[in-house]
Q: What sequence folds into this?
């Protein structure tokens, strides 16, 4: 199988679509972030990479708190809007009709319409080159009652979507597809070879 | 819409499935990592969260290099195997029949069968609580020739899959599904409201 070199790229896939929230000058704002992931298990922490110039970056610096909201497929328009506009120019909460609420942290704004909401307290800000990698401890998780089955989060009700950053066919959003295997299970089939 | 509190959790979705490679005591080993994401844009950097006790953690510490390999759906069995076994006990390269090669870094092992391979040089190791958040600068990208269209990476040929960490219906792997929208585009429909 031949390989082609492409130089340094950010080519991993899939990536999540997360709406990161912060109060900026006292008002809630949200931006779309695909560059984020869980950073620690016990206690749960998350990291998000945010360009210095972003309006949300300012708000996180002001309060040292932020939120991470997972949108479902029916919010793809709003999520994309939060990625292509700046809170310095538009009121995204108003344009997107987000119902904003707060949890145990005073200034980490949460979006009611998103099925999953995490409240985060900043633990580290790692200043890289173009972006800050902001690590937050997850203080609380809110989940929409309608996305639970037997009291537990149900992925088929949350209906998240992924951001695809490859140039072909296009930068796009995709829902989840076929279930291909049970995790921590299918790999056992290879154990016979040990 | 009612919300339920679940305490601190790592509930984001979807997550990527990445095979992180390192030479440990001079031999290539790979582990499955869902807790990773892009950390910086210019230059490209990536972060992966790895538990201290993991065999791969030792190898990354030894060489200060690692690789990130994106498996396609046909490697789901091997990827899961790399997540449920330890290189201290089994030779994963042998069991999984991985063809290992090296690029510009001497000791960041790459998997030929994975369509995308990133070579990374460690820039920061952020010691959190249970995990280290390891930030690497992406030095080179290798992509399988068969996954290109007009010389560019084509997601429909790469065929990556996601890890779903919600307990219901089950922890599982899912392929990508329906294309729901073009990124940096559909959000413009809301601009009429500005």
A:
């Amino acid at each position: 199988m031949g390989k082609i070199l492409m130089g340094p790229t950010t080519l991993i896939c899939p990536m999540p679509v997360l709406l990161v929230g912060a109060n900026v000058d006292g008002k809630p704002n949200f931006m779309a972030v695909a560059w984020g992931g869980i950073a620690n298990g016990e206690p749960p922490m998350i990291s998000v990479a945010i360009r210095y110039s972003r309006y949300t970056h300012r708000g996180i610096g002001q309060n040292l708190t932020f939120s991470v909201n997972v949108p479902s497929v029916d919010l793809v328009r709003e999520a994309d809007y939060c990625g292509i506009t700046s809170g310095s120019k538009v009121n995204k909460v108003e344009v997107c009709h987000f119902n904003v609420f707060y949890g145990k942290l005073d200034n980490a704004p949460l979006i009611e319409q998103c099925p999953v909401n995490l409240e985060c307290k900043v633990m580290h800000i790692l200043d890289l080159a173009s972006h800050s990698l902001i690590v937050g401890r997850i203080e609380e998780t809110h989940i929409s009652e309608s996305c639970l089955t037997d009291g537990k989060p149900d992925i088929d009700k949350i209906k998240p979507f992924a951001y695809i950053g490859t140039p072909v066919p296009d930068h796009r959003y995709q829902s989840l597809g076929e279930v291909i295997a049970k995790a921590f299970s299918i790999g056992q089939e290879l154990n016979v070879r040990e």
